[in-house]
Amino acid sequence: MTAPGRILDLFAGPGGWSEGLRTLGLRDVGIEIDPSACATRAAAGHTTIRADVATYPTAPLRGKVSGLIASPPCQTFSAAGLRAGNTDLPLCHQVLDDLTRGHDTRDTVRAACSDPRSLLVVEPLRYALDLRPDWIALEEVPAVLPLFEHTAWSLAAAGYSTWTGVLNAADFGVAQTRRRAFLIASRMRPALPPEPTHADGGTCADLFGDGLPTWRSMGDVLGCPPGEVVTRGNHTTGGSRFPTTGPSWALTGRARSWMLRVGSRPTATRRRLDQPASTLLFGKAMNHVAWIDSDGTPVRRLALEEAAVLQGFPATYPWAGSRTKQFEQIGNAVPAPLAAAVVRPLVPAALEVAA
Question: What's the distance, Cα to Cα, between the start and end of the chain in Å?
Fold first, then answer.
């Protein structure tokens, strides 16, 4: 077994996996090319190599990596994008087969792809077969599940126990019903999905243990902190009431009738404050993630700090880059509580040492 805690994070983004690992007393080294995400990671204290995952050499890393994490960019497969990845699926499967056989055909096949970013989904297998880490955890949009299943087959042939499936972030304490595909693999123990910590509506205690609490709502994580309130405005125009002991974006009693709308279409998802948020999608739709009143009247856009908290980050997380880039980083990140839940059963020995 390689040194515990030597974890490599491909396409590391702003630090969703890193924050999850931090709660477990573990650290990673991320490889990330986006300058804004790299700046965010640096401000948050996460070690980063600024480089292109697809061209970074694996040879210097052999024998030095015990855990491999990866969340390949999802734009070409996401329902919010153009979904060019669907056209490129056969080519992605071809390269996975080629890598399994020891042939790297990425450069040749990339030229035939509708979107060259589609092939980034094969990079975790390339690193895994070159580095042979003790455990692996991958995350992507649900549309990528067939490619994860193919990757799992290749890893099983290399001696890994594997599990693939879709996890809902709300089942792990995140106030968002974000569904993502995962691949979990281990050479040291059976690969199993994490045990949920929450459930829709909760569950009752039985002979096998305590029941699970219900999903956390937006109100639970964004609710108005206790403390004296003051009114901003004047006696003529009135104003809004905010807590003096909490952040300025915190919701107040008046907001209890608000709903969060994600999208600009008439069919856009709307969730009440006493429910988890739907999957947060930003990018081009950033300005359409907004609070509305119970009658549909727009109130204001979702604040950056609110988006971060709904994604499982601290409200004070040090986002870098333009406002657009900050929201983009939040929407692309793995929620930290979900990341921690996935990794925890893979590294019990390391957690005992950390404790």
Answer: 20
Q: Quote the strand ranges of the chain, DSSP E.
A: 7-10, 28-32, 47-50, 67-70, 135-140, 161-168, 179-186, 229-234, 238-243, 259-262, 269-272, 289-292, 298-301
Boundaries of every domain in the chain: 7-201+332-354, 218-317
Is 7-201+332-354 CATH 3.40.50.150?
Answer: yes
With 0.85 as the threshold, say if the pTM is over it. Answer: yes
Contacts 24+ apart (CB under 8 A), 288-291: 288/261, 288/262, 288/263, 288/264, 289/260, 289/261, 289/262, 289/263, 290/260, 290/261, 291/255, 291/258, 291/259, 291/260, 291/261
Closest to 300 measured CA to CA, from 252, 245, 335 = 252
What is the tens place of the pLDDT at every residue in 49-99?
999 999 999 999 999 999 999 999 877 676 555 556 678 999 999 999 999
pLDDT digits (tens, 9 = 90+) for 296-307: 888 889 999 999
> At CA 313, angle to CA 307 and CA 319, rounded to 5?
75
